[in-house]
Write a structure and sequence with these properties.
By secondary structure, the protein is an all-alpha fold. It folds into 2 domains: 40 residues; 238 residues, Orthogonal Bundle (MetI-like fold), CATH 1.10.3720.10. Helices cover 76% and strands 1% of the residues. It has 12 helices and 2 strands. The protein has a two-stranded antiparallel ribbon. Helix 5 runs parallel beside helix 10.
């Protein structure tokens, strides 16, 4: 009888080990697929970009102020596309960062449980709306409203694109910042109240500085999201690459240009086709640097408040 029990236990343990081994193998396979995918993307971008820079000097690409890749005489200065991307990103950051941080502070410090249960899901619902819907929302609602304030504004303009992109990334800032602020130990809050601090002083001088790493990381991740936004910007900002210093004119971002080339009108293997990969590689490097900076901020300030 004892032998049968031991045999059953041994079989059961063997099955558990086999199942754990299968799970570990599956998780490792998923990690390997993500690594292979990333490496493949980098390889393709590097290969096509190298072919592009054999025909166009890097100085002309990175420092040129004229972007006319489809017509003769052609020009491949990426600064107008980079400027358009930065204009939309800056405008989106100005809109989303203050509103997102304010929303996070209210949800974590002042909202009751019942209000939080209503407000946070509604706020996060904005992240589930397709980006193309935001683009048409900008064309049919935001731009007509802006036309009342700025009669000279164009149908496709940077301001409308910045507003809708700011609304898009706002839930990311609010959610991540809320999580960072709620992770601050209550002992810090109670200690500040015991010293006679007001609720405002506790929030601004204790809670926000203590959760600064998560808050700053949410800002940088949202900016990365804004830089890589495609459809909303393509529909709202237009396709006019220029170095305009006003938000009221049409511009073109790097992602919008990639969409334009991807429509199939450009012959595969041509310089105009390969420059799409050069623009994509530049966009990849920018977002990679932002992610590296956000990770550095997380490590740097997390050590301070351990």
């Amino acid at each position: 009888m004892m032998m049968q029990v031991k045999q059953r236990e041994s079989i059961s343990k063997g099955r558990v080990r086999w199942l754990e081994s299968l799970i570990h193998s599956g998780l490792g396979l998923c990690a390997l697929i993500s690594i292979i995918t990333t490496a493949s993307i980098i390889f393709i971008l590097a290969k096509e970009s190298f072919g592009f820079f054999q025909h166009v000097a890097p100085a002309d690409f990175f420092l040129g102020t004229s972007w006319v890749p489809m017509f003769e005489p052609s020009a491949f200065g990426v600064l107008p596309l980079l400027w358009g991307t930065l204009v939309v990103t800056f405008g989106a950051a100005v809109i989303s960062i203050p509103m997102g941080l304010a929303s996070a502070i209210y949800l974590s410090e002042y909202a009751t449980a019942s209000k939080r249960a209503i407000i946070k899901p509604v706020l996060e619902l904005l992240a589930g709306i397709p980006t193309v819907v935001y683009g048409y929302f900008a064309l049919t609602f935001v731009t007509p409203l802006l036309k009342i304030l700025f009669p000279e504004i164009q149908v496709f303009n940077a301001l409308s694109a910045a507003i809708v992109v700011g609304i898009m990334v706002l839930p990311m800032i609010a959610t991540l910042s809320d999580n960072a602020l709620r992770a601050v130990p209550d002992s810090l809050r109670q200690g500040a109240y015991a010293l006679g601090a007001t609720s405002y002083e506790v929030t601004t001088q204790v809670v926000v500085p203590a959760g600064l790493s998560g808050v700053m990381a949410s800002f940088l991740l949202a900016i990365s999201r804004a830089i890589g936004e495609t459809m909303a910007v393509t529909l709202a900002a237009g396709a006019t690459p220029n170095l305009s210093f006003t938000f009221l004119e049409s511009i073109q971002t790097m992602t919008a240009y990639i969409v334009q080339v991807s429509m199939g009108d450009t012959p595969s293997g041509s310089v105009a086709y390969q420059n799409m990969f050069a623009v994509a590689a530049l966009l990849f490097v920018i977002t990679l640097l932002l992610n590296i900076v956000s990770q550095w901020i997380l490590r740097r300030y997390r050590e301070v408040y351990q």
